[in-house]
Amino acid sequence: MGEGGLVSFQVEKIVIKEYLKKLKFSIKNEQLTFGEYDKFNINILNDIINQEKSRNVFIHLGGNVLFILSIIVSAIVQYLKNMRDPNNHLLNFISEGDVIEIEGARAKFVGIEDDKIILQYSDLTSRLPLKFSYKLRKYNGNAKTLSKYPVKKSTRRNVTKNIISEIFDIDITTMSSIIKYSTLIVAPKNIIYEMVKNIRVSDDENSYEFTSLFPCAYYGSVERMDNFRGNAINSEPILKFTSKISTARDIIQVNKDIKNLIILGEDIYKNNLSDLEWILKRKSVDNVIIILDWSNVSSIQYMLGGEEKYNVFAWSEEALLSNINLSNYLDIRNTTSAYIIEQKKVINYFLNRNVDLLRVDDDEKISGTIRDIRKTLNELAKTNADSDDKNQFIKISYGLLSIFEKLPVPLKYLEKAIDEKKLVALHPRRALAELRILAGRLLEYTWTSNYKSKVDFILSKLEYIREQIQDFNPKWAEFIKEIRAIQYKSHLVLVPKAYYAEAIYVCFREKGLQHNIKILPVSKYTKDAFYDEILLVGVYDDKKFNAFNNCYAMNEKYLAYPIEAKHFLWARKMNDKLIKEIEKVNSLVKYEETAVTYEPDIVLDKETENEVNELVELESIIDSIIRSETIYEFEQERNVSRIKCIRCAVFETGERAYFTRYFKPNVIDRDSENIIEKNVEDLKPGDELVFVRNEHDMEKDIILDIIDRLMMNRDFKDKYDNILYLSRIWKEKLRDYLESTGFNEEYISRQLAAYNCSRDAATIATWIRSNKIIGPLEKNVYKALASITNDSFMIKNWVKIHEACSIIRKLHTRLKKYLASSIIKSVVGVNAEDNSEFRIIREIVGELSELAQIVQVESIFELEKEIPAYMANKLIEM
Question: What is the DSSP code string of 415-483?
Fold first, then answer.
């Protein structure tokens, strides 16, 4: 419509580096001063987004600056592509009667006559010359009324369009007004919000929030979208953010106008490669950029060997030396931004870091025995005599062997801590007792003498190692020597699981050793601090922590028996091989003219290769045993109500849990001494989950259990009885409404949207089915539900219901905080802080930590299966 008088031009490649000099960017009030390295990255991002079709892997060293740049570059380039596309002119997208926005006023579009745009205001009709059509914007807001015709010239304008036209020397009258094409960015939610909400853009005169210039929105699901501040007229977001690759797939499936996809980190997709593959094959998506850092690049092997052809941009040592004047760039003087300083430190650590072995000489007493047990376990696993007892014997033996190999303190301290309930882990003494029972049952069968000898050998050798390290651990001398050397430096000790850390602390206390040692399970490691040294104990597996490419420690040392040292060197060799494979396809270097002298290939003997292969094979067998047990459980249950689970978690103590999609397990956060709720998809090995210790109702949420117990107290009941009733009645009313009308959650979702209370059907289903959901935060949702259900009680009391939900939500928060503190402080032998508010809890319920059963996730895997409903979201003993 209305093509006459419109100026069109050819959309061309957009180069922004030089123009960016006219703008200043800051984050958290700290100016981002871009140096040579950053400008190089701007060019790469710019070139990629200008491609017609490309798939790219961008490997950097760490920090958030590259992510910030990807946000800025993609927003500007995507905006320019929209504004410079004549097909995106507003007049091609509106019809008679549509509301538009012009310089802050709302008017109705009537049509075009004689090269004039006819606009209807609330008080008059105006005729705007067609050449000023660039001032129009489509209005997507909620206001129902039109504005009066502005008598005075409005100071409000399309700030973004004005800035872009000035910076890029574009005639503003030629710029379109519709955002049709957008970029989708997938990253951890906390990082998205930290970056996007805090970026500001300045020109010579003014400073603006980034999101007021470039409309941005976060998508919890394809149906649930939250605009970032600044998008007053609800324009189509030019940058769309989400934190799940599955949600990204859903968005792309319904929106063919997403032209670029940026993914931050392999954790986003590594457990969901099928969704990534689907997106990569999508013709509507022009360019994909996967941003990785060197400490987390294991998935690149999948990419280099796949069907898709990737362009690889990797900041390797040679790429840095060949392209950047590092002496200038690494100078942090006059650098005010913490993000830029972090990036420069990361590069410096990357170029100068050391990774070494701390070898423990045990005369092969422990190391050799571990090797022999592992080999025999493999042989036993391959025998034809399959049984549940055999599988249990192998699984428990392997778990014990892992503890014996990795623990750096005498075993008695671990056993003491378990006996005193300071931690939850496989108890070596009890595990050996169980193995003897299993061995006895196994040897009752008519197996061959060879089979019997293997079972006897494994059991006797495990007992031998326990005896050897019970009071003296060969690792202890090297461990304590290194601890004394680093405790006054910036340091960190990484261990495989939380109970190793607790065992070490118990040992220090028992021996009366003063220390200020920071010990973390590897699953809790985050790149939020730099260290002079990280001491690795039983950690070298790049699935959890890549010791060879970590850029946040100047020195890393791995405490190792001879057998562990061989595995460490093997892992290093594989890492070196991967880096060389990346360099061969690295667009930032000329591989043939390498400026970097690589270390000679690590040469390992055939025996070492066999040992490593045996370990990999045994781990695969253990995983298969766990999965086969799971499938067997499901197949045994008939004629019971079933529900779909999405994850199976296996815990250190042998129990497991099957989690449904909308269940949110309670997880201990020891740093903040709190209990947090996690999405099932976000659970990781090492997480400590809290279940209620209630023999009558193991499914029950522990906070709800505490509240039920508190309700037995008259004073508490008098205070909270009616409040609890009001906080729960809205769910009952909603359930009753659905049952009586036959409507479903999708219908409620559409009705809520009509009241400007958008919620997707899945969220509403969670409201109804989950006792853990207290209620929506927003007051207007309760008002809308009252109107939708037309329930007289809801209509009269929706304000009180909202207030009651707020009170109960605060009560839950206080109980979680107190429970976590009680649990954690009971573990370390310190009484939890007391106050008058919670003294009643101890009097009524008893010691809170006694209610809790804490289990640590050993492994978790996807398992989309229908299971008996009674097995869902609870601890199951195996």
Answer: HHHHHTTSS----HHHHHHHHHHHHHHHHHS---HHHHHHHHHHHHHHHHHHHHHSS--HHHHHHHHHH
